[in-house]
Amino acid sequence: xxxxxxxxxxxxxxxxxxxxxxxxxxxxxxxxxxDPRIDEVNEVLPGVNCGGCGxxxxxxxxxxxxxxxxxxxxxxxxxxxxxMNEVAKVLGIEVVEKEAMVAVVRCNGSxxxxxxxxxxxxxxxxxxxxxxxxxxxxxxxxxxxxxxCVKSCKFDxxxxxxxxxxxxxxxxKCVACGACxxxxxxxxxxLRLKGKANRRIFVSCSNTEKGGIARKNCVAAxxxxxxxxxxxxxxxxxxxxxxxxxxxxxxxxxRKCVTECPTKAIHEINFPPKLSNPKLADEIKVKEIKS
Length: 291
Fold this sequence. Notes:
alpha+beta; 11 helices
């Protein structure tokens, strides 16, 4: 065999062996030992990687759970309390169950309530239109109706109503991951407690203009009259820049603000029809609040 070829083969073998030894040393020196519980926690998570927990994906959330001292600030909205109990079981700690949340749309500017002033013919993304102009109506706070929230939902829980032009949340499918909240450029979607028997009350408007201007652009807008604030016996409503806001943590679902609102901007969800006998209705409300 030619000596040059022999030297070449010998040199390459020597370099390969040396490189292997160096790589082995580096791998041992900088080896990252991962807590095996991360895999165990990851297995009990839904695995949808929606980001509703505030982390990039389920594995990142699993790592955070393992590193945390407790689970008070960690929650998987898709898996809910059942999933978090499984996580706590893996980690050998206790977890306090949290009340279910659901997305609500704080805009009542339907085609009927909010007259069009122009017709838009362009790209169908709310974020882009929001940066271009006020929209097809005079209300610069209202829903643009192009469905960024629909596109962002991985659970098919939100759709655009063709009659009203507004998003509709399917509370049975909504897992309160918050994707639609982040997707809406006008901050019209909020996560709120589902409430007892899935009942909840909220102001379905986000317009902070003064009453006259708000009403001119939408007949169902909050006009900031403050009547709901005065009638609420629990101090659950406050005015924020001409707009009423109901604190769902304080609201006892008495419904007094609903009937007081002159523009019907306050919505009540999943309540039974009101009784014609006011005295009997009040007695039932008192019992429900006490329960």
